[in-house]
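User: Here's a chain of 329 residues. Predict its fold as C-alpha cells.
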Amino acid sequence: MGNKTYAYCLWIFWIHGFLCNACQSLHGNCSNESSGEFDWSTKDQGIILGAFFWGYVILQVPGGMLAERIGGKWPFGIGMLVTAIFSLLTPLAARTGKNVLIICRIIQGLGEGVTNPAAHALMARWLPPLERSRLGGFIYIGAQAGTVITMPLCGYLISSNFLGGWPSVFYIMGTLGIIWFIFWSFFVFDSPKDHPRIEAKELSYIQHSIGLQMSQHKKVPTPWRKMLTSMPVIAILIAQTGHGWGLYTLLTELPTYLKTILHFDMKSNGYLSAVPYLAMVLFSLASTVIADNLREKKCIQQYNSSKNFPLNCSSWSSKFFNWSSIFWM
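Assistant: Prediction complete.
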C-alpha cells in the first residue's frame, strides 16, 4: 500500500523494532569492552545480561491481555519509553553497583515485555490478511536491522572518547527511544477507525480487507485448558522457545565469544557480530514477499505458509551454525 497514514505507522513500527534489538544488542557488546572499568566475573556478566529476560518473560501474557482490553498503542509506547529511560540510566546504575544494574535491566525487560504482544494486537487491526507476511516481515526486520547497525556502532563508540566511550551507546539509544515515543504518541492509533487523519479510501481498504470482525466480534472466555493441552500450541511453544534461545544467546554471547575465544578487537567484533543479522534481514525480506505472492496466487494456503517457511529457515540456520563452527576451529 502507498497510503501516507499506513506508511507512517509501518515506519514507526519498524523504528521501534530497530531500537528494541539495538537496546538488547548494545548490552552484549558493551560487556566486552577491552579495558573495562568494572571487574565483573563471567558469572556476574551472565547474570547482568540475563536479567533483562527475567523481566521480559513476566509481562508477555499480561501485556497481550492488556492490549486486547485497552488497545495496543499505550502499552506498546509506554513500555518502550520505560526501556529508553532506563537505558539512559544504565551507566549510572552500573557505577552505583552490580545489583542496581541488575534491577535496571529487569525493569528494561518489563518495559519491552509488553511490546511484542501489544504489537500483535495492533497489527491484527491494521494489516490486511494478504499483506501480513510482507508487512509483518518488514516490521520485524527492524529488530534485526537495529542489531546490524548497532553492533558496529557499539564497537566504534566504545573505542572512542565520545561521551566517555561505552556510556555513549546507552545515552544515544535512550535518547532515540524517547524521541521515538513522541512520534508514536502523535502518529499511531489503536485501529484505523480511531485515526483522525486517515483518508476515507485508505480506511475503506483496510476495513474491507480485514472485515468488521475486529469491531463486532463477541468476547468469549479464553479456553486456557484446551490451549495448554493442544498439540499445535505446544509444538509452536517448543519451536518458539528454541528460536528465542538461539537468537538471544547469539545476540548476547557472540561478542563475548569473538573477543575471548577468537581474540578480535572491538571494532572487528562489532562488524562480525552484525553479519548473522544482516543475513536475517535479507532472507526475511525475500521470504515474506515470496510467501505473500504464493498465497495471492493460491499456490499455497496460510497454514502451509506459516508452517513451512519457518521450518525451512530453521533447518538452514542450524546447518550454517554447524558449518561456521567447523570453519573457525
